[in-house]
Design brief:
single chain; 331 residues; mainly alpha; 15 helices; binds zinc ion; membrane; Fatty acid hydroxylase domain-containing protein 2-like; transmembrane
Length: 331
């Protein structure tokens, strides 16, 4: 077995090749998997009113959006994506921003992961500084999407008026997640090279206890390579429908806003502790889902820390900072 500590570059290269092979294999078996699901699982639900009504509802809503952009694949991908992601970002941030500005409600603020750093209400100067970066990030993201979208059109992604089946979405999602995990892990780990860290990534790490609107707080080059491109790797491999790309993009925004929120709220379906730990320790937890960190051993500090035990029970109602009685403070 290869020692991941003594051969970090070799193991990282092998992991990248392995991810590429898994993605290729998954894409190859996907059509057969969709057929199997349609033949074996769909008959179990096809006669329910929920299945029929939801299918009609989503299809009719999609047709309105599709017609609004004139069925133009480029407009759907660029203007459509920017509108959907922008709206999603605002909605997802609203509760966290309210808590950071007002320090209320106390019933939720008590779930702050690092209660002694950036304590709510957060210093207005900090919020103002990260908020002023948002228009720049939005503009850079829009330009990057405008440049990247022709590649997805060339790939043959589906921009049709008909929505994909639920089975197509379910089968595409693991590939999209794996593509994002690989793209983000490796671009992020490269950004932690001392030369690049000092010049680029240090800005994103200014907040050792992040707040939700600081999720996209980074230099434009980082926003493109670590923010815009990784979620598009999966669509490039699978050629999935544009609505699946949007759904996955909104899911990714939920993850990144939650990860930077600084609150481990009891109703979160995902614990933000993993990336919060990255902000507090810098050299651990580079990926999105923890898969490559686990394979390459870059989460060992996190696993040793008591937070790992909390991460397994993210939906408890005990505030995370109280649930580690013997936990040491992070440095
Ligand atoms: Zn971050
Ligand atoms: Zn980092």
């Amino acid at each position: 077995m290869i020692n991941t500590q003594s051969h970090p570059r070799l193991t990282a290269t092998l992991a990248a090749v392995a991810v590429g092979l898994v993605l290729a294999a998954w894409t190859a078996v996907s059509p057969g998997l969709v057929v199997w699901l349609k033949e074996n699982v769909e008959p179990l639900v096809a006669n329910t009113s929920l299945w029929r009504n939801s299918g009609t509802f989503f299809q009719s809503q999609w047709e309105k959006v599709y017609d609004w952009y004139g069925g133009n694949a480029y407009l759907l991908g660029t203007l459509g994506s920017t509108n959907v992601y922008g709206l999603t970002f605002v909605v997802l941030n609203s509760l966290y921003l309210y808590m950071d500005i007002t320090g209320r409600p106390a019933a939720l603020v008590k779930y702050k992961i690092q209660p002694d750093v950036n304590t709510p209400p957060v210093e207005p100067a900090i919020l103002r500084k990260v908020a002023l970066q948002l228009p720049i990030t939005a503009l850079v993201t829009f330009v990057a999407i405008c440049l990247a979208w022709p590649i997805l059109m060339w790939r043959g992604c589906d921009f049709g008026r008909e929505l994909p089946s639920l089975w197509n979405v379910l089968v595409d999602f693991p590939a999209l997640m794996l593509g994002e995990e690989a793209g983000f892990y490796f671009s992020h780990r490269i950004l932690h090279h001392p030369y690049l860290y000092k010049r680029i990534h240090k800005k994103h790490h200014e907040l050792t206890a992040p707040v939700s609107i600081a999720a996209p707080y980074a230099y434009p080059v980082e926003s493109v390579f670590s923010g815009v491109l990784p979620p598009l790797l999966g669509p490039l491999v699978t050629g999935c429908h544009v609505s699946t790309i949007w759904l996955f993009g909104c899911y990714g925004l939920y993850i990144t806003v939650t990860d930077h929120s600084g609150y481990d709220l009891p109703f979160n379906v995902r614990s933000p502790e993993f990336h919060d730990f990255h902000h507090s320790r810098f050299n651990s937890n580079f990926g999105v889902y923890g898969l490559l960190d686990g394979l390459l051993g870059t989460d060992s500090a996190y696993r040793q820390y008591k937070a790992a035990a909390r991460h397994k029970t993210p939906n408890g109602i005990t505030p995370p900072s109280n649930s580690i009685p013997n936990g040491k403070k992070r440095k």
